[in-house]
Amino acid sequence: MVQVTFVDVNGVERRVDGGSEDQSLMELAKANGIDGIAADCGGACSCATCLVHIDPDWTERTGQPDDIEFAMLDMVADVATVSSRLACQIRLSGALDGLRVVVAQQ
After folding, report:
1. Which residues are CB-contacts of 20 (< 8 A; sequence separation ≥ 6)?
2. CB atoms closer than 10 angstroms to residue 78
3. Residue ranges of the alpha helices (H) in the chain?
4. pLDDT, tens only, 2-51
5. Cα separation of 14 and 77, whole Å?
6. Quick one: 2-103 is in which CATH superfamily?
7. Backbone angles phi, psi at 17, to 5 degrees
């Protein structure tokens, strides 16, 4: 099981235990009612409504966006930062146990 700390769009920090290695960060957020994760496309990387900012200590472990995700991030460049990722594109793994992300204001 993977533990993730989310800071939602209201600034409320919430630790979520129980993420499984077969789900995305977006799926974990949706399953736990994290404010600000709309996930309109359901995880198809065709919107940016699951935009999060990765804590700097975790950016290397979450990796870099691929070309498709980068194109989606470019569409929300006004709120994206160098540490931004789409939560639907981050697969949970044991290496991400303890991850901390901030949900982007959109």
Report:
1. 1, 2, 92
2. 6
3. 25-31, 59-62, 67-75
4. 999 999 999 999 999 988 888 999 999 999 999 999 999 999 999 999 99
5. 26
6. Beta-grasp domain (3.10.20.30)
7. -100, 150
